[in-house]
Design goal:
The chain is α+β, with helices and mostly antiparallel strands. The chain contains nine helices and five strands; from the N terminus they run H-H-E-E-H-H-H-H-E-E-E-H-H-H.
């Protein structure tokens, strides 16, 4: 059953398309390759407008260098797995949008960096201007632990994520039940 879950594209598509959290696949050069619909809701750009755009193009100028430094550490050190920071994006309308950014290095053979998986949790726009990084408060260790938990227990993490989406009303419970029935049917 575990192999079937991991190879079922419908599960990935449901988590990608219906997540309230903006998720993206970003190239090692910082260019958006794919975004889920939540990015459009967050920033006002269509998915087509975001595809091919560099992250610095939509990042608040005051946060670009801090973000670039974090990316550089992932590029330079194959042992680094992720970074987290609070940063600002600029919406299509020109407004500042605060997010808690989580960037995960997706590595292939011999720790070769292939691309980044990105999640951006929207934050209230009332954060002080000087709050840019939360890396030093232990939060990055928490994020690394979550990433490790997902690598070691992907099935359990997916179940928790799906239940969270049900709890916030993004996926109807009946859809989850129907999917489980499908997997249990020989």
């Amino acid at each position: 059953m575990e192999t079937k879950l991991r190879t079922d594209n419908r599960l990935f598509e449901a988590l990608w398309d219906h997540s309230p959290i903006p998720q993206a696949i970003v190239s090692t050069t910082g260019v958006f390759r794919e975004t889920n619909p939540a990015w459009s809701e967050l920033l006002g750009y269509s998915r087509l407008e975001l595809a091919g755009r560099h992250f610095a193009d939509i990042t608040h100028p005051g946060d670009v260098e801090a973000d670039r430094a974090e990316v550089k550490s992932l590029l330079d050190d194959p042992r680094e797995t992720c970074y987290s920071m609070v940063k600002r994006y600029l919406s299509k309308q020109g407004t500042v949008v605060w997010v808690e950014l989580h960037v995960f290095a997706i590595r292939g053979l011999e720790s070769h960096l292939e691309y980044f998986a990105v999640c951006a949790i929207p934050l209230p726009s009332i954060l002080p201007e000087n709050q840019v990084s939360i890396k030093d408060n232990g939060y990055s260790k928490f994020v690394a632990a979550v990433g490790g938990a997902f690598r070691n227990n992907p099935r359990e993490c997916i179940v928790v994520f799906i239940l969270a989406l049900v709890a916030v009303g993004k996926i109807p419970f009946s859809t989850v039940v129907d999917s489980i029935k499908h997997f249990l049917t020989p």
